[in-house]
Amino acid sequence: MYFAALLARTEDGWEASDTELDDVETLDDLAGLAREATADDDETVLVLLEQEGIWYGVIRIDGEDDPRVFVSNAAGAARSAYGEILLTPELLGREPEDDSALDSLTDLDGTEDGEPDPAAASGADAGADPDAPPGTPAGPVGDTELLEDLGVSEKQLLALHGDAVNEIAEMLGAADVLEAVR
Asked: How many CB atoms lie within 10 A of CB 103?
């Protein structure tokens, strides 16, 4: 089961709204949806997304700045349509995909298409989730400090499990407004 909510920080405190992600295909789409949720373009908006018991994500949008993203379990999120929105190549430490003709001839690792990758054969991804796409870490990825200035430390963020969205809202002082939309 998924839950997604927007928390907008206004002069009067936090305002919450639930959100449908059916039309969201990219992180930019999600950021646009979050920006539309606030009357003031300079307000901070958080998108809290959770797949119950598997992973949670926090996306922070400050005005026109690029979104800042944290995902608690990249391998779990990679198996989710909503998680894939957040797991951009940049977040995973990969180069963005390039469809140039040169890339079709030789991969960046030096192997021809179809040849086995020597690193993969040697077990370089040992400990990785076998159901996740290759190279996807089993743990957290992203900006672990995106809520520091709002009172949620990196250590607190990394320690969350279970009902993380409600716990984050409680630490932010927004539990009541989030509960109203849940």
From this structure: 12
Q: Number of helices and strands (H, E) in the chain? A: 8, 6
- DSSP annotation of 154 reads H
**All residues at 6 or more sequence positions from 17 whose CB lies less than 8 Å from its CB, including other chains:** 5, 6, 8, 37, 181
Confidence tier at 155 by pLDDT (50, 70, 90): very high
159-181 b/e (C-beta count within 10 Å ≥ 16 → b): ebeeebbbbbbebbebbebbeee
Burial class (CB in 10 A: 0-12, 13-18, 19+), 133: middle
105's CB contacts (< 8 A; 6+ apart) are: 112, 113
Full-prediction pTM beyond 0.90?
no
- The position carrying tokens 């690792």 is 109
Phi-psi bin for 87: left (phi > 0), alpha (psi -120 to 50), beta? beta
Structure tokens that stand for 121 in this block: 């054969």
For 42-66, the pLDDT digits (tens) are 889 999 999 988 999 999 999 889 9
